[in-house]
From TrEMBL:
It comes from Streptomyces prunicolor. It comes from the Bacteria. Keywords: Hydrolase, Protease, Repeat. InterPro entries: Clp_N_dom_sf (IPR036628), Clp_R_N (IPR004176). One of its GO terms (biological process) is proteolysis. The keyword Protease applies. SUPFAM superfamilies: Double Clp-N motif. This is Clp protease N-terminal domain-containing protein. It holds the Pfam family Clp_N.
């Protein structure tokens, strides 16, 4: 599948691996792919994010904070935390108590002390789903290669924290598709 990736898509995968390594996470997750997308400049995905209002650095930082908050909640989306609150379970209180005893970020699932001895870059099931969905999206649009824009579209359509965070910042699947493939005034250059 990687042979079908554009230079920008490969750069996003490399960037996701770097984000994983910096975070100490045991695997590359969809959140790492999103962070790597936010780092890109002069690509179809970066143009789309800019067109949808996610260009200013403070908005990118807002996305990074929202991803960090979700990671501290053990990867629960805000919708999931709200659903638990409806059952009388205060996720913020649970996180605070766990962090009080075990330290900040204890619920994140990061395995800093259990780094893979093989040196392999492990992709989580969620990250693999993003890559597979990206390929399906590219094929559906009759695009010859998988680009970083397909990663963006996959993140917006798949359930989970990255899609929720993007939607909270005005980047929905419909809006991104409109920018990339027409139906609106802006169109990403290819």
């Amino acid at each position: 599948m990687f042979e079908r990736f554009t230079k920008d898509a490969r750069a996003v995968v490399r960037g996701a691996v770097e984000h994983r390594e910096r975070s100490g996470s045991g695997s590359v997750d969809p959140e790492h792919l999103l962070l790597a997308l936010l780092d890109r400049k002069a690509s179809r995905a970066s143009f789309t994010l800019t067109a949808l209002g996610l260009a200013p650095e403070e908005r990118k930082e807002s996305v990074r904070r929202a991803l960090g908050d979700a990671r501290r909640r053990a990867g629960l989306s805000q919708a999931e935390a709200d659903a638990l609150a409806g059952l009388g379970i205060d996720v913020s209180e649970i996180v605070a108590r766990v962090e009080e005893v075990h330290g900040v970020g204890a619920m994140s699932g990061d395995r800093r002390d259990k780094e893979s001895w093989s040196g392999r870059r492990v992709f989580s099931r969620g990250a693999k789903d993003v890559l597979e969905k990206s390929l399906r999206i590219a094929v559906a649009h009759r695009d010859r290669h998988v680009g970083d824009e397909h990663f963006l579209l996959a993140l917006t359509v798949l359930p989970g924290v990255p899609g929720e965070v993007l939607a909270d910042h005005g980047v929905t699947h419909e809006a991104a598709t409109r920018v990339l493939y027409g139906g609106g005034e802006a169109r990403a250059a290819g």
